[in-house]
Automatic annotation (TrEMBL):
PANTHER family: 23S RRNA (URACIL(1939)-C(5))-METHYLTRANSFERASE RLMD (PTHR11061:SF49), RNA M5U METHYLTRANSFERASE (PTHR11061). Residues 25-36 have a biased composition (Polar residues). InterPro entries: NA-bd_OB-fold (IPR012340), SAM-dependent_MTases_sf (IPR029063), TRAM_dom (IPR002792), U5_MeTrfase_fam (IPR010280). Gene3D superfamilies: 2.40.50.1070, Nucleic acid-binding proteins (2.40.50.140), Vaccinia Virus protein VP39 (3.40.50.150). It comes from Halomonas llamarensis. S-adenosyl-L-methionine binds at Q318, Y347, E368, D416. CDD domains: AdoMet_MTases. This is 23S rRNA (Uracil(1939)-C(5))-methyltransferase RlmD. The gene is rlmD.
Amino acid sequence: MAMLGKRRPPRPASNKSGLARQESAKQAPNAETTSDQVLTIERLAHDGRGVGHLPSGKAVFVDQALPGERVEIATHMTRKRFDEAHIRERLSAAPERVTPPCPHFGHCGGCDLQHMSVPAQREHKREVVRELLFRQGISWQGSLDTLKSDSDAYRRRARLGVNVDREGRVLMGFRAQRSHRLVDIASCCVLVPELQALITPLRDVLGSLKSPRDVGHIELLATPDTCVVIVRQLKEQPQDADRWHAFANEQGVALGMRSGRDSAERDSINRDNPERAKSQAGSPELHWVGAPPVLNDILTLPGCESLTLEFSPGDFLQVNADVNQQMVAQVIQWLAPQKGQQLLDLYAGMGNFSLPMAAAGAKVHAVEGSPAMVARLVANAHRHQLPVNGQQADLNSRESVNALLKEIPADAVILDPPRGGAESVCQALAKISAKPHQRPRIAYVSCDPATLARDAAHLMHGGYRIARVVAADMFVHTAHMETLMLLEPPA
């Protein structure tokens, strides 16, 4: 960062290629990076890797290592301030270590904490929240409960890559950690049972295709009514259409086909923001085999009838239905909306919080950046005859946010932003020129505790105080989590 904006000095000329220089660097006599070391793991990093120190004091991040373990490591990446390593031999095991439930653990990059007991995973996530708050000067001493599901088979949507290797074998699976290499899988224990049951039939149909190389990936989605399989082909292959149609009929799934190359943005699948789907503009058109299915998410919450939220493929949908319902119920409990109260739901999506709040009695003004999602939200509210107004606005623009807060005074605000957080909104809320008792209560739902801590600091500088914090174990066996926070205005 110190060099940002400055011209870098010219690199000395060399008659070696880039690859040769890399090989020379690997062979350089460096005792700390080329020979094995024995470390004691002191703690976990936020991403779940073990952290130890070399005799020189240099930190080392060790894959799949747990606090208290002594491990012999092999370094695979040397950096200026720290090294990255993996375990060559584990000399002692921590009490929290368990046998990973998935045979693909250590190869597939999807679930990186399966070597740790689930209670230990959840304790680690709570500690990450506390530490990130502390880094922002916030010492949270209150309780920090966890919302969790009873089942580890939680994922109701997934995307499987497809490839054909040099020997002609068809591979289907997820990417390896920090790699574009595809890991061929025979099962996935975190998928909901309905999707797990499709793995073997999908492998069979891929193996029967005339042109499997033209299949880019397969998207899976389980709804309360049906399972959806969307096949993305690089180009249309009529000779394989009958095989896909037979698969759909045999498995009783809704089958969609996209043919053609996606734009770079679509291929990345929201690399910078996996929690929010981008616009479908520029993507190959989706063609359904048979009648297009009606895709619904159903929220069943205490004190109100079940709510049906219709959505389309590509719309944002929380992958863990059980934990999502618990999060919605928690926010309703915190804000306890009364009839006629004005509630502002920002980053509202298709109405995940807006509709339940309106069903509980609040008058909801819902704001979302995507015009397509606003239309979806309004249609969902109209279907249930709920008092929800929808609006499209850029919530990253301070001018837009200030105008919105001035126009729509609210008794309570819900924030459910993408990974980048809601900094502009929180800065504006912290500066609202209203009497303390007229400032809104805030329920913040975050998919990144680091940006939550940053935004909470802005609100606290404006006089708000943290009343409750809850972690939500949305993604079991991974370091990712959701965090809920209730902030109260000054008395």
